[in-house]
Write a structure and sequence with these properties.
2 copies of one chain form a homodimer.
Chain A: E1 2-4, E2 14-19, E3 32-47, H1 55-63, E4 68-78, H2 86-101, E5 108-115, H3 122-128, H4 139-145, E6 154-162, E7 165-174, E8 187-192, H5 198-211, E9 227-232, H6 246-268, E10 276-284, H7 287-299, H8 301-308, H9 315-322, E11 334-339, E12 342-348, E13 351-352, H10 357-363, E14 368-374, E15 380-387, H11 391-398
Parallel strand pairs in A: 4-5, 8-9, 10-14
Antiparallel strand pairs in A: 1-6, 2-3, 3-4, 3-9, 6-7, 7-8, 10-15, 11-12, 11-14, 12-13
Chain lengths: 402, 402
């Protein structure tokens, strides 16, 4: 398996494009994207667990009842959630895309991201859709158009083989705020040219989501619009994957690579983030235990603020473990911080060590910081990803709507 | 019942004092407090639910096995949690207080607050304790000595009657960071001169804690050192309360008034807070449902940051309700904001209203802002308290230890 360029257009038969249709005021910011497959694709999806769901989620769920789709349309600048005419406008967005591409409305996935509760300017989308020129290398155009407070567009693609036949998986995503474990917690659109049974595609997506996107947290808020979609159009012409055989395992692993890479990009570009935090809990008794502890640490505002200040306040790591709700033996806990500048242990067997504060500050000043927590029990390991809590998070969210 | 001055010294027979013993570097900041009852008092307590507990919690629990105490010693500047010699130092702190006052060590409650994981300078306490002059009006000295990042000392006292006999309840507390529902989530020391059975005292404390301190959130972090203690020395000479009669109800109500008042002071002085938020969920089906929804709103970083910016981003209110994990009918939800500057409805039946943005900004610019959420179901009402998320929260916690 190797990382390649091309994002969602890396797999055979996919095109993408975007335009500024007018939902956003700034002309320089595109706000409408389409991803298109030349043939109908088996399609799997996971959605937000928030009880309050945007109408595009309901429309997409209905359109995917047959596990097939041929295009994704996504607007930024307005979430079309809790908004007047929400359902009607989500359907009109799908229809506009379908008519432009000459496909059935039921084969269109609709996604929206942006402010909640305001009416979607559907006329902008209906009039703007024809401005989109689909391109064989248009992945980055789409990736830019779905950004909200993201500072960087996010994509990833891999090439791997099934029975000697080259296959490709590519993805784009947007993250930033409202990022928390439990569901996609963002928008991610993944394409592949693999031929695979729809139920196995869904299974691989669900299992990988648990270990990738659901292990990222930015601020503990789960959005109303989250969605992760995988389209598989079969154009690689591999022998169709219809059981959990070696080819399925290879596919699932390649898909996980793309998803994990995108997940880490989301954490690293979390709203206002100045650094990526990866928290690894190891020597755990069970995966569930390690995951709960790692998520609790990654979600602690106090810990995240300390990381912003490069302050080796490991007491907050232990404290966050303590209120996670899971059992562990405090007297066996070791804690270290690591980065490109070195590694420093700060806690041994649940008690503080005398450590070199200057060295710790240096380690924690890197753009990517690891927190390593050993439970001294068995051999389970889980890593979760997050970011620090900064002035900019407060600034961005103190006046998001204007 | 009337509010009076005097804090923990308002009830008969209680004295308090404080000194700078040297745990904190700044000479101008006192760091050691004692609250003393002239006679042994029936004593009840609730503690942090964090699995990682400071050693003072364990020592206090043991000392309260007989439900009696005569003094509280509390240091700030060091939590004595996960620290070398933690257990030994907590015991030595109790002993130093006992020897100074000429009482048994088992009648001393020990509390600590401050940084986690560093060794407590126990010699400072042992040598400093004799510098404390207990005073009949020393409540504010103690209230100041237990502050950490609090910007204001916090106290409250009430006078009420049992069978025509005047009784008094007074309290001091500290809050600021690491404040979240589930347990005291801070330090609160409450005194009263009521004569009451120890088990009824405990019962009143536990039930009131659920509806007061446990409805305050600052940052979602639950500390290792939280403790709320009530001492009742019986010096009011009321007929002892030994059953859940009218006198018990009057006592419990008066105690709740003090606890709620202290709780709101904690929310209002949350770390970095610029305004107090009170979130009321009404017309709910059950109290539990209303409480979960109100807490979820109050805990949302996105909502808190919007309140800092006086941004009427009500979508974040609905979003936080959606991921709270409890059921409600979105199509019946109404949302309004209110303050001294007026009231403005922003959402009706789950959909956004066209509202006057200028007026909303004005309403949200007040020091105390109310969020009113109607579920349109039955008649249950719950209010939770919190504060906004500000630059100062990040600043304070970005470098807390230095």
């Amino acid at each position: 398996m190797q990382l390649i360029k091309g994002g969602v257009c890396a797999p055979r038969g996919f095109m993408a494009g975007a335009c500024h249709c007018g939902i956003r005021k700034s002309q320089s910011k595109s706000d409408l994207a389409i991803i298109y497959s030349k043939t109908k694709a088996k399609t799997a999806a996971v959605y937000t667990t928030n009880r309050v769901k945007a109408d595009c989620i309901f429309v997409t769920k209905e359109h995917l009842e047959d596990h097939q789709a041929q295009a994704i349309i996504c607007n930024s600048g307005n979430a079309n959630a809790c908004a007047p005419y929400g359902r009607e406008n989500a359907e009109r967005e799908a229809l506009a895309c379908a008519q432009y591409l000459g496909i059935a409305s039921e084969d269109v996935i609709v996604a929206s991201t942006g402010v909640i509760g305001q009416e979607l300017a559907i006329q902008c989308i209906e009039q703007g859709v024809s401005k989109i020129e689909l391109q064989e290398d248009g992945s980055n155009l789409a990736a830019q158009a779905i950004m909200t407070t993201d500072t960087r567009s996010k994509d990833c693609a891999v090439r791997f083989e099934i029975d000697g036949i080259p296959c490709h998986i590519g993805g784009i995503c947007k993250g930033s705020g409202m990022i928390h474990p439990n569901m996609g917690t963002m928008l991610a659109f993944i394409t592949c040219d693999v031929s695979i049974d729809a139920h196995l595609l869904q299974k691989a997506l669900v299992e990988n989501t648990k270990r990738t996107f659901n292990r990222v947290t930015v601020d503990g808020d789960t959005s109303t619009n989250d969605m992760c979609v995988v389209m598989a159009n079969g154009m690689a012409r591999n022998k169709p994957i219809v059981s959990e055989d070696e080819a399925y395992v290879a596919f699932k692993e390649a898909l996980k690579t793309v998803m994990e890479n995108l997940a880490i990009q989301i954490a690293s570009d979390g709203e206002g983030a100045s650094r990526l935090l990866s928290v690894t809990v190891y020597e755990a008794e069970t995966e569930a235990q390690a995951e709960s502890l790692a998520k609790s640490i990654c979600s602690s505002s106090l810990f995240k603020a300390a990381m912003f200040g490069s302050d080796a306040n490991w007491g907050r790591v232990l404290c966050a473990m303590g209120y996670s709700g899971v059992d562990f033996d405090i007297s066996k806990v070791d804690i270290s911080f690591a980065s490109q500048y070195g590694k420093i242990q700060v806690c041994s067997q649940g008690r503080g060590l005398d450590f070199d504060e200057k060295m710790a500050k240096k380690v924690l000043s890197a753009d990517a910081v690891q927190v390593l927590v050993s439970l001294g029990q068995k051999d389970q390991v889980v890593t979760c990803w997050g970011c620090d809590l900064t002035y900019d998070y407060v600034k961005i969210n103190g006046d998001y709507r204007t």
